[in-house]
Amino acid sequence: MVDHIVIPVDGSEESKRAATRGLELASVVDATVDVLHVVEQKSLRLAKSADEQTRLRERGESILEEIEAIAADIGRPITTELTEGKPSVQIREFAAERDATVIVIGRQGVTGLGKRLLGGVTEQVLSRSEIPVLVVPHGDGATTPVTDYSRILIPTDGSENADAATQPAVTIARHCGATIDVLNVVDIQNAGGMFSAGGLETEFIERLEAVGSEAVDEVAGEIGETAPEVAVTTDVVRTSSLDGVAAGISEYVADRDVDLIIMGSHGRSNLGRHVLGSVTSALLRTVDVPILVVSRSA
Predict the structure, then answer these.
(1) Domains of the chain by residue range
(2) Distance between CA atoms of 148 and 30, rounded to whole angstroms?
(3) What is the longest distance spanned by two Cα atoms in the chain?
């Protein structure tokens, strides 16, 4: 269920983009919205006077007012909150106190070397939050309004954690009229080892694909039982990329014009290894569409 959304903002363009997508999502699913700005305690300590501290708090109020204007344009009422402390801690505690069902947060852009980074606050929230976190990038792939989402992707490895993505996907797909794609990626390099993958027997790869087919069929079956009106497609693809499963998912996203990825925070490979955590981390840094990360406890 997605019925109460918390949107932390810091005044950056990334957070404004995330706030816009979060407000659109709230409008689509009719969710309550709280918008939070945290004045960093460290900044307050470094302020040389009470006037400087006041200006920091006033800047926070100004940031919230900007989001109020965006919300008014979208037509979604919001509640705003200004607090002080360590941002990642305050965000998690605030979301828990408000019984939030989703946190929507921006992802930092790229460095001068072209390497994509997750913001420190975003990464800390992701690593410790039991509440699903929607990470919105600043790239062109995140410009599609939520109301226009037509294809949602659930990557699955068959684990319970990966399959925790199913219900949020159904909720959003129902309201947007979107198709859900359920995908399993067979990682040839991981299965055979970096130097022996070329020698894998066809029969062995086919067994891995059979396991993948069972995983996607199980998710598709659950969707069919709970939301028969939602269109579902399934696929099992191979990747021999050294970047592994994440590369296979990224290619699928680009080829199929996926608007949103919903996936578990970690899981296991076809060989029983716990790898979806690294896959999630890699995708958060490389794909330019929003990713909703869901833990099994959520």
Answers:
(1) 4-142, 149-294
(2) 16
(3) 72
* 149-294 has the same fold as 4-142: yes
What is the dotted CATH code of the domain comprising 149-294? Answer: 3.40.50.620
Closest by CA position to 103, among listed 174, 181, 25, 12: 25
For residue 177, what are the CA distances in angstroms to 28, 63, 147, 206? 11, 33, 9, 34
Alpha helices in 98-198 (DSSP H): 120-128, 160-163, 166-176, 188-192
Looking at the DSSP bridge assignments, the partners of residue 151 are: 179
Give the sheet arrangement for strand 4-8, strand by strand: 79-85, 32-40, 4-8, 102-106, 133-136, 291-294, 260-264, 151-155, 179-187, 232-239
Domain 4-142 has CATH 3.40.50.620: yes
Q: pLDDT tens, 107-152? A: 874 434 344 445 688 888 888 888 999 999 987 667 899 999 999 9
Q: pTM of the predicted model, to two decimals? A: 0.88
Contact 193, 23 (CB under 8 A): no
How large a percentage of the chain has pLDDT more than 90?
Answer: 60
Residues forming beta bridges with residue 36, ordered by sequence position: 8, 81
Buried b (16+ CB within 10 A) or exposed e, 113-123: eeebebbebbb
Cβ–Cβ < 8 Å for 132, 101: yes
Model confidence at 180: pLDDT above 70: yes
- Which tokens sit at 211? 């396991």
